[in-house]
Specification:
By secondary structure, the chain is mostly helical. It contains four helices and no strands.
Length: 67
């Protein structure tokens, strides 16, 4: 996935457009991509990319998560 594709996906998941993905937006993004099973565990695992521990993923953290 290139940088433009990553940005487009980030912007799609960031429903409120604040430049950050919160845990609710992330869960909705996983659902939209067809994730099933233990969604809460997957979201918690993904949130480990929150390097500064502010409870949201900024674009750099999101990029790290997906690479």
């Amino acid at each position: 996935m290139n940088e433009a594709e990553l940005r487009a996906l980030f912007d799609e998941i960031d429903k409120d457009g604040d430049g950050r993905i919160n845990i609710v937006e992330l869960a909705e993004g996983f659902k939209a991509e067809g994730a099933h099973g233990h969604l809460s565990e997957e979201v918690k695992k993904a949130m480990t990319a929150d390097a500064n521990h502010d409870g949201v993923l900024d674009f750099d953290e999101f990029r790290t998560l997906l690479k």
